[in-house]
Hints:
The protein is built from 14 helices and seven strands. The chain is α/β, with parallel strands linked by helices. It has three domains: 33-117, Alpha-Beta Complex (Conserved hypothetical protein from pyrococcus furiosus pfu- 392566-001, ParB domain); 121-179, Arc Repressor Mutant, subunit A, CATH 1.10.10; 194-273. A five-stranded mixed sheet has the order 1-5-3-4-2, with helices on one face. Strand 6 (268-272) and strand 7 (277-281) form a beta hairpin. Residues 1-32 have low confidence and may be disordered.
Amino acid sequence: xxxGKTGLGKHIGLGKGFDSLLPQNFDSSLLLTxxxxxxxxxxxxxxxxxxxxxxxxxxxALAQLASSIKQYGILQPLVVTPHPDVAKSGEFRIIxxxxxxxxATIAGLDKVPVIVRTSHELESLEIALVENVxxxxxxxxxxxxxxERLHQQFNMTYDKISERLGKATSTxxxxxxxxxxxxxxxxxxKQGEISEGHARAILALKAKPEQQLTLLKDIVDNGxxxxxxxxxxxxxxxxxxxxxxxxxxxxxxxxxxxxLSKRLGAPVNIRRTAKGGRLELKFVSDEDLERLLKLLExxxx
Length: 301
């Protein structure tokens, strides 16, 4: 008998044969461990967490999500925990997914999929996340993702996260802001093509997405330092938008500095700031400094 045929000579498709091994109404969630099993819970038995740091939910975005839920259902289950009030036995409190819960209410759903976590399990997960952020081998983006999970899934404010991590709140906020980078910049940061300092300069142009990508390209293609990237940002914020003028402000060399460098026999650079800037004259030793001082004095006289 030929492979893939029955005694009657008919072909059996692999998909059809595989499907016949499982009943059509099989619930694959039964294969999950108890703590990961997805349950359907009545919406009325679920309530928001009073400690949720987010207090404003965009109504238009909720309406769009509700429309999607009507069409496709809830693709990611909510994470809930049994309500701590014994008088509310059988009810649950949201740990992650309040936005989905609100949208499901708008969509008119009776039940939503949830994963139930005990307070002990949540504490263990929280500790694991905190320890993960504190690892020295994590990239800035990986740290940002873990911090945001603590904020979103465990309803922790950034101030509270800062306390747990032993870091300044400003440091934590700056790290999380990296998630707002354009996808191209996040990838460049991940690959080590730009530094965290470069990334912050790119973030400063958040209101101008096209300039963010232009700055990213200049950093990567021209090997710009963080200071040069910051000067690029300062130029745009001061109203200088013409590409040539911006590049001139970013460049540390001009025709004039080259002339000065030749006359003085030392590198001369321009460092522009938001207001004006400074002219830098480099020396390699005390003797070289003494030579330059005497030369400058002679020019003065």
